[in-house]
Design a protein that fits this description.
It catalyses: N(6)-[(R)-lipoyl]-L-lysyl-[glycine-cleavage complex H protein] + glycine + H(+) = N(6)-[(R)-S(8)-aminomethyldihydrolipoyl]-L-lysyl-[glycine-cleavage complex H protein] + CO2. GO terms for molecular function: glycine binding; glycine dehydrogenase (decarboxylating) activity; pyridoxal phosphate binding. Its EC number is 1.4.4.2. The protein is an alpha/beta fold and about 525 residues long. The radius of gyration is 27 Å and the shape is globular. The protein contains 15 helices and twelve strands. The two termini are about 25 Å apart. The protein has helices at about 5-15, 75-85, 105-115, 115-120, 130-150, 160-175, 195-200, 220-225, 250-255, 290-295, 355-390, 420-430, 455-475, 480-485, 495-500, and strands spanning about 150-155, 185-190, 205-210, 230-235, 260-265, 285, 310, 320-325, 330-335, 405-410, 435, 445-450.
Length: about 525
């Protein structure tokens, strides 16, 4: 078999469902790994021959190639361009992940972050040379305090979960400063998984607070669980069922009466920004996901930013460093002395993430107070539009309107043989990223949809129309279609359980076949 035939055989063996000899599907070109494209002697740049030198490695001297692929410049460009075409992103379509707030990142923010005065500075520069950057941090901190009604903010935490850690460490330090030993934290059942994990990481015992039939915290159960051993209560408002906790003031009053602190997960602040101040709800500490509320880039593992706003009782424990107003401009307070005697110390190497701070401040200033209020209003409007459009075809677990996200359960799939996962996979074939599945855990077979404020009515109409059609096909018994989906993607449905438990994290070249002479 010649090399051409062998290549075609390999493609069709791996991707026989494509129906083509090449493995390609029209202009969707099959792309092997970079290492599989390796061809010795090819290179994208001309490098001078290294000078001859005496070997000083002894028995550790390299005996073969180091394993970097040899590829020409055009092939490298095509490889990464083709890979980028397989990505789904907020810039290519609706990203309805509930609880994630996948909103548009305005390009104005990107332009500001790329200004030389922000993009080219270094965290180890003398403070006198970065006064503008410190002014940005200070101004962003000011508006975060204004929007939340809180007197203090810690800017250094790197992301939401890091902000949770900061807040819970501050709560622990506050109790210790008062000589109290409180070892229990109450966490709402619908909370993000990071909430109980963070509390446990801080040494607390975690106890779940049940939800009532309305999808909100059971106030009576919460009060019964409060006691002198409770350090804090952690909940989200609006919660992860997409509902506003209507008894939030009663909750916070009960928590404070028991001598505990109220930690609010700020993941859903986008739904109330400019309309409700968390401090007015009795919140003592809350992290803010800048990517969710103030449009800094989301996903890809970073860079992130999770500032934490604190009430006066917790402010002295905010982690270092602090940006403060000094005699000669801004200064960076880096030692636990003076006003910072009780500070937690450092949670991060430097003072937050400058690029995210610039983007968030640009977003705030371009919107203004009325614009941010409109952000929250439109986010809630879009979610309720989705809820209204789908409530007769899907099944909603709770009565009444929602806040920023619409929650459905799997009762509409009963006796069809189709699951929540099947619906999500079928959505991929329709060109939509699936919604969040099976979360929150308080709802069976959950489908959680958050359209955010940046999606148009036309886009939402297409999305609603597709889900209506899929629900109808499920009721018509088209089980085989759902179980086979997705069929139009570069790869078909994977064994996700095995992939999670036995991931292949390293590529290894095939061993060359040995001949009889060897």
């Amino acid at each position: 078999m010649n090399e051409w035939s062998k290549a075609i055989s390999n493609f069709t063996a791996d991707l026989g469902a494509s129906g083509t000899y090449s493995g390609h599907r029209g202009l969707q070109i099959e792309e092997p790994l970079l290492f599989e494209r390796d061809s010795e002697g090819r290179c994208g740049v001309d490098l001078p021959a290294p000078p001859k030198a005496k070997n000083r490695l002894g028995t550790n001297a390299r005996k073969g190639r180091i394993g970097l692929p040899g590829i020409s410049e055009p092939e490298i460009v095509r490889h990464f361009t083709r890979l980028s075409q397989k990505n789904y992103a907020i810039d290519t379509g609706l990203y309805p992940l509930g609880s994630c707030t996948m909103k548009h990142n305005p390009r104005l923010n990107e332009k500001m972050a790329r200004l030389a005065g922000f993009a080219d500075i270094h965290p180890l520069q003398p403070v006198s040379t970065v006064q503008g950057a410190l002014a940005v941090i200070d101004q962003l901190a000011h508006w975060l305090k204004v929007l939340t009604g809180m007197p203090a903010v810690a800017m250094s935490p790197a992301a939401g979960a890091h902000g949770e850690l900061c807040g819970m460490m501050a709560i622990r330090a506050a109790h210790q400063a008062k000589g109290e030993t409180r070892n229990k934290v109450l966490v709402a059942e619908s909370a993000h998984g990071t909430n109980p994990a963070t509390a446990a990481a801080c040494g607390f015992t975690v106890e779940a607070v049940p939800a009532n039939a309305r999808g909100r915290v059971d106030l009576a159960a919460l009060k019964a669980q409060l006691g002198p051993d409770v350090a804090a209560v952690m909940l989200t408002n609006p919660n992860t069922c997409g509902l506003f906790e209507t008894e939030i003031r009663e909750i916070s009053d009960a928590v404070h009466a028991a001598g505990a602190y109220f930690y609010c997960d700020g993941a859903n602040f986008n739904a109330i920004v400019g309309r409700v101040r968390p401090a007015d709800l009795g919140v003592d500490v809350m992290h803010i996901n800048l990517h969710k509320t103030f449009s800094t880039p989301h996903g890809g593992g970073g860079p992130g930013a999770g500032p934490v706003v604190l009430a006066a009782a917790l402010a002295p424990f905010a982690p270092l460093p602090w940006v403060v107003h000094g005699k000669n401009g801004f200064e960076v307070l880096e030692k636990a002395e003076g006003a910072a005697t009780q500070a937690l110390g450092r949670l991060k190497g430097f003072h937050g993430q400058m690029g995210m701070f610039v983007r968030a401040l640009a977003y705030m200033m371009s919107h203004g107070a009325d614009g941010l209020r409109q952000v929250a209003s439109d986010a809630v409007l879009n979610a309720n539009y989705v809820l209204a459009g789908l409530k007769d075809d899907l099944t909603a677990p709770f009565e009444g309107p929602c806040m920023h996200e619409a929650l459905f359960d799997d009762r509409f799939l009963k006796d069809t043989g189709v699951t929540t996962l099947d619906v999500a996979k079928a959505l991929i074939d329709e060109g939509f990223h699936p919604m969040t599945m099976y979360f929150p855990l308080v709802v069976h077979g959950a489908l959680l949809i958050e359209p955010t404020e940046t999606e148009s009515k036309a886009t939402l109409d297409r999305f609603i129309g597709v889900l209506k059609a899929l629900a109808a096909e499920a009721r018509e018994g088209k089980v085989d279609k759902f179980r086979a989906a997705p069929t139009l993607t570069p790869r078909r449905r994977l064994d996700e359980t095995s992939a999670a438990r036995q991931p292949v994290l390293r590529w290894k070249p095939e061993e060359p076949a040995r001949t009889a002479a060897e």
